[in-house]
Amino acid sequence: MTAVNHRQVSNGAVNSWSAIRFEAELSLRRLAPRMEAVWIAEDADQTLRNEFETRLNEHWPAVFETLHKLYGDRYDFFYHLEQILITAVKAWINRPETLREVDRHRINAPDWFASEEVVGGALYVDLFSENLGRLRETIGYFKELGLTYLHLMPLFAVRPGDNDGGYAISNYRSIDPRLGTIEDLKLLADDLRAAGITLVLDFVFNHTADDHQWAQLAQSGDCEYQQYFHIFPDRRMPDRYEQTLREIFPTVRRGNFTWHDGMQQWVWTTFNSFQWDLNYSNPAVFRSMLEEMFFIADMGVDILRLDAVAFIWKQMGTSCENQPQAHLLIQAFNLLARIATPGLLFKSEAIVHPDEVVKYVSSEECQISYNPTLMALLWESLATRETRLLVRSLSHRHKLPDGTAWVNYLRCHDDIGWTFDDADAAEIGINAFNHRQFLNEFYTGQYPGSFARGVPFQENAQTGDMRIAGTLASLAGLELAIENDCEEEKERGIGRMLLLQSITLSIGGIPLIYLGEEWGMLNDYEFVKDPAKAGDTRWIHRPKMQWEFLSELDDKIESGGGSIRKRIFRSLQRMIAARKSQSAFAGQVMELITTGNHHVLSFVRINGGNRVIVIGNFSEEPQTIIGNHLRTAGLGRFFQDAISGRNYGTSEDIQLEPYQYLWLCRV
Ligand code: GLC
After folding, report:
1. Residue 661 domain-assigned?
2. Is 349 labeled as catalytic in the residue annotation?
């Protein structure tokens, strides 16, 4: 029966939306008794059932169509469809009532994350507070800084030794015992919710660790689980794939496959050799990861960071990145979340070409996304002291679909890659290849006059490619300035850091601070002492929180090391508060302002009747902006800097100090 229906579908009977709808409705009617059995077995409340069914009826045709595109050719398609539906029903039934309340609220306010009130922070639990229990005691710290969104780096059980900063997960249902327990995480989530802070966790769904149960079963020869991964008996297929693949971690191992001695077979490992890529052409993998996703969500997670989204589908003869099926998979996860955990949002981690990054951002896929192009080009502007490439890119890349937002950041736990568009560069006369070489030299401190103290990450001797590791402060010049004990350079370093932060806090979207930035923490060279970290230079910018810094906030000394940290902390805190006071900063609407000065970035943020003009000087020389240029941006004749409170008028020219930034609003 199942097979007959399936064949009707794949024989082309379903080639229009109405035919799909019909098939979808039919499938739902066929699955109804199975669902009924679950409702009865779980003794579920009728209201819960009604809520679920309303959403199911709304989204099921799209679920069916999406999964059909992915798996419709399989003889067992309807079996998997049934399993997936039952997984969703159970997820809703088992969802804690407090989270169902959040769901109901967010269904009515779907763009809650676009508010000017939302300011994010990211941290490693062990490096910040040692464990989850202690982290609960630091909620006051986040509140004092003004954070309302907290991304905890992966905290699930990991393989022993190197675990790629938590991204090699052995079990999605238990917490790394060094950090705490599932119960600790739930308690933390409750406390964060009570404090108005949303919790963001990773959904590492491209790969598992080599000691995850599925991988272990595969290693023991279990055929069912060997199909959970991409495993090959010899080099024939890997060699064919390799012809069109990039290398992501070339210093770890050449190519994308790892020989497994026990199995005597090759395994697809895009990242480290111990991270086994999952095989999503197998619908059982989709369903299994869906179960893990619901489990994670139910611990009180508001936003899932979808890790390494670009890599989840492999297609021979392609780069195996950004495949159409990768988008379908995310859409399928999203639709099922809309049905079973509707308050849950997705954040895309696609660190790829800007044309591809944006394809993951929509209400149907990821509602929010890292903005790697902005990040890279802010650093590019600091190095060149010019904003031309940034402006060119922003002019046609900043706008996003309604109901979505950028996550704007300067540093995260990962490296910086120069992911701007070559054509954008060419249009303003920049050779992209040479420019990337220059940026690499600049940020590793090799370029004459460079202020940066970054180090290479994944340097590929063959292609000359590399990415950059380093903290915000070290890359912005503070480390070198402190080393040279040069006051003027220290000022510039601080100026650069705050300038960049003034842009990510105002340009539209969710600003995300990588904790440590608030103190201007420098590179941590000690990581090499830990054998599990020594091979990965990204640990240089993952320093341990120094809680003694807090006492410097009460420090009366106005010069010396202590006051630099205090100044950075207080300036950032002030900026965050100023952001929250301007409703113009909600949403995404941003219009560039032409100032005629290439050292300056200027734009206006508009939300309803509210406007703020942002101006930033990217050079260490003073700059002048002709006041008249701002008059047409809608602020009238007089305005005030929302950060310092200073008044300005458009009849006068605006003098900008080195690295000065202004947020001008109506007086
Ligand atoms: C993502 C993470 C990165 C990790 C990789 C593999 O890019 O941000 O830290 O190494 O995925 O999981």
Report:
1. yes
2. yes
502 domain residue, yes or no: no
Ligand 1 pocket, mutate which of 271, 276, 305, 311 (most atoms under 8 A from CB): 271
Low-confidence ranges of the chain (pLDDT < 70): 1-15, 556-562
Q: Tell me if 257 is assigned to some domain.
A: no
Residue 639: CATH number of its domain: 2.60.40.1180
Q: How far is the CA of 134 from the centre of ligand 1 (A)?
A: 26
pTM of the predicted model as reported, rounded to 2 decimal places: 0.95
Q: Is the CB of 308 under 6 A from ligand 1?
A: yes
Residues 131-159 pLDDT 10s: 999 999 999 999 999 999 999 999 999 99
DSSP 467: E
Per DSSP, what are the bridge partners of residue 156? 175
> In sequence order, what E strands does 314-390 have?
345-348, 368-370
- Selecting among 164, 307, 365, 465, the annotated active-site residue is 307
Would you give the DSSP letter of residue 167? T
Burial of 449 (0-12, 13-18, 19+ CB in 10 A): exposed
Domain containing residue 605: 583-666
Which runs of consecutive H residues, i.e. helices, occur in 146-221?
182-194, 213-219
526 is catalytic: no
Instruction: Output DSSP code: residue 544.
Output: P
Torsional class of 42: left (φ above 0), alpha (ψ -120 to 50), beta (otherwise): alpha
What is the number of structural domains in the chain?
1
Distance CA 485, CA 654 (A): 32
SS3 content of the chain, % helix, strand, coil (to 5): 45, 15, 35
Which letter does DSSP use for residue 363 in this model?
T
The answer to whether residue 179 sits within a structural domain is no
